Amino acid sequence: MQTKRLTFENPSGVKLSALLDLPVNPVPNAYALFAHCFTCTKNFKAAHNVSIALNQAGIAVLRFDFTGLGDSEGDFSETGLSSNVEDVVAAADFLKAEYEAPKILIGHSLGGAAVLQAAGRIDSTRAVTTIGAPGDPRHVEKHLSTSREQIEKDGEAEVELGGKSFKIKKQFLDDLDSNRMKEAIRKLHRKALLILHSPIDNVVGIDNAATIFMAAKHPKSFVSLDQADHLLSDERDSLYAGAVIAAWARKYIGIPIEKIRPAESEDHRVVARTGKSGYRTEISASGHDLIADEPESLGGSDMGPNPYDYLAAGLGACTTMTLRMYADRKEWPLDEIVARLKHQKVHADACEDCETKSGKLDEIDREIEVIGDLSEEQRKRLLEIADKCPVHRTLHSEIKVRTRLKEENPKT
Fold first, then answer.
1. pLDDT digit string (tens) for 265-320?
2. Is 229 part of any domain?
């Protein structure tokens, strides 16, 4: 995905650091806002993976660091849930001013409590999602139990959280108002709510999901993140969560069915984009989103077919479509066509009917299965027609690939 580094100011004039993850299609179907968990940052792996899944659905995602965390300015000890809410609203205002107002709010853990309270102040919001969020923000206090007495006595204390030291002041504890949380949930009105929670979450128990669900009015939904931990450490869990959010939100954010697929480029180009780490590649082809990757053995993450798989897939699809068209025109009883293909590099000297006699060459093994009440003559004819599919002919003809660098500052 394409990621832009941005900054914006909160109501106190503090500069907050953000990342805007953009899908391949030039005009996103919608914008979403992601609020991270307590003492986490925008670079939290689960947030990144949720963005990946939403980007595949054509949804852009802004994730940012709360005041005093990550790359954002400010003093964390001076913050609380109320300031987190203000940061969320500021992020939404920034999106509205510079791009498009967010229709989806997503909050993880205490970030979920923040988006629930901020949603009523963000008019563009149509869908709100919480991931492992507390039904009562005061649950945070249990993680401060050893320092609670010192905080009450001295007004502040240094607390070790996630291997990092943070100064927590009494105002932070005083700001965790459960009544304000419940009132915010009740006032979501017709903003759809999706609650994602793991039944084995040992940081924020599953009972919190029940508390939020019972306080909310319809439309509301719950999805169990079975076997996931609180931080969604297994990337499969965070990618799943993102895919569920994307599929669920479509109903509520006003994307017409025909816009679920990204808009085609004006010149009908296939667009492929690979990021700075790994080989995972996003592809937009004729308005369809695809993923390419390499296997783990070659340094990839195996999240999609490799480029040669797509080459074989193109030939396979062209083959079966061509046979379908031919059989339909002839009115033959062809029920189904299955093509099985495998690409490999072979030694040229082992190929008796190849012009190349040295080094290695590309070979695609193609097996075709035709299903239906066909005569032997019809079956043989279909085999001949397979070699006449347009992609087959392209692969056997002279191909020119003209490559150029895009101008960094094209003239207007």
1. 456 788 887 877 788 888 878 777 788 899 989 888 888 899 999 999 999 999 99
2. yes
Q: Are residues 243 and 315 in the same domain?
A: no
Q: Which residue has the tokens 């070659």?
A: 298
**pLDDT tens digits, one per residue of 40-70:** 999 999 999 999 999 988 899 999 999 999 9
Q: What is the CA radius of gyration of the chain?
A: 27
User: Could you give the CA distance from residue 151 to residue 172 in angstroms, rounded to a whole number?
Assistant: 10
Residues 375-408 have pLDDT tens digits of 999 999 999 999 999 999 999 898 888 899 988 7
Distance CA 298, CA 195 (A): 37
**Count: domains in the chain:** 2
C-alpha to C-alpha distance for 96 and 324, rounded to whole angstroms: 49
Do 62 and 31 form a contact (C-beta atoms < 8 A)? Answer: yes
Cα 111 from chain centre: 18
* Backbone angles phi and psi of 172, in degrees to 5: -65, -45
Domain span at residue 316 reads 307-395
- For Cα atoms 5, 237, 25, give the angle at the middle one, nearest 5 degrees: 45
Same domain, 238 and 346: no
Q: What's the pTM?
A: 0.71
Q: In whole angstroms, what is the distance from residue 50 CA to residue 177 CA?
A: 29
Cα-based distances in Å from 75 to 39, 68, 92, 159, 218: 12, 5, 22, 15, 38
